[in-house]
């Protein structure tokens, strides 16, 4: 599995959802508790910028993970941040480089390959959050879903809940691949019902 290629596909999936956003939708609630669509888009931009900084060895400060700017055009902001992180992940030795990921564990770095897998998961799931909020399609391929599910199955329970990127999981047994992924990370596949 080429984690960088999977991450590019996850970013394209998220980019397609973000492209469907209109300015009048930015105040809508999302499946992420306590986040409006504007807050979720800011999180996506911030994560892209934070992971890019981590790939460069500059990810220790929480500020680089939270300073994403949307300006007046969230689509352009997302596209710029996606290009930034894609370029950072393309560096030849990045898969083995140590990534500081203080939002996950500030005591130790993660190998680049694992960090990129975390980023991929975040992009896939938040692409659904954006898509379901604005009524857009969310159609990841099975390979991307399976890769994201493998990472999601290892996400610890601590640090989840309202205001966090991932909520407490809901029952997932017997669900199709995409719905199982969403449920493991606290999303109801039938949101907002």
TrEMBL record:
InterPro entries: CHP03086 (IPR017520), DinB/YfiT-like (IPR034660), Maleyloyr_isom (IPR017517), MDMPI_metal-binding (IPR024344). It comes from the Bacteria. Residues 14-131 form the Mycothiol-dependent maleylpyruvate isomerase metal-binding domain. GO terms for molecular function: metal ion binding. It holds the Pfam family MDMPI_N. NCBIfam families: maleylpyruvate isomerase family mycothiol-dependent enzyme, TIGR03086 family metal-binding protein. This is TIGR03086 family protein. It comes from Prauserella cavernicola. The lineage of its organism: Bacteria, Bacillati, Actinomycetota, Actinomycetes, Pseudonocardiales.
């Amino acid at each position: 599995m080429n984690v960088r290629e999977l991450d590019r596909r996850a970013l394209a999936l998220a980019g397609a959802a973000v492209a469907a956003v209109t300015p009048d939708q930015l105040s809508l609630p999302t499946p992420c508790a306590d986040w409006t669509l504007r807050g979720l888009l800011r999180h996506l931009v911030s994560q892209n910028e934070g992971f890019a900084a981590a790939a460069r060895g500059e990810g220790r400060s929480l500020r680089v993970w939270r300073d994403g700017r949307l300006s007046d055009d969230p689509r352009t902001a997302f596209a710029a941040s996606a290009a930034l992180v894609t370029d950072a992940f393309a560096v030849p030795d990045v898969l083995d480089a140590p990534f500081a990921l203080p939002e996950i564990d500030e005591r130790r770095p993660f190998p680049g390959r694992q960090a990129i897998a975390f980023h991929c998961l975040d992009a896939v799931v938040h692409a659904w959050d954006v898509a379901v909020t604005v009524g857009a399609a969310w159609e990841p391929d099975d390979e991307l879903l399976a890769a994201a599910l493998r990472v999601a199955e290892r996400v610890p329970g601590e640090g989840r809940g309202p205001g966090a990127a991932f909520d407490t999981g809901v029952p997932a047994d017997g669900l199709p691949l995409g719905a199982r992924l969403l449920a493991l990370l606290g999303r109801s596949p039938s949101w907002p019902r």
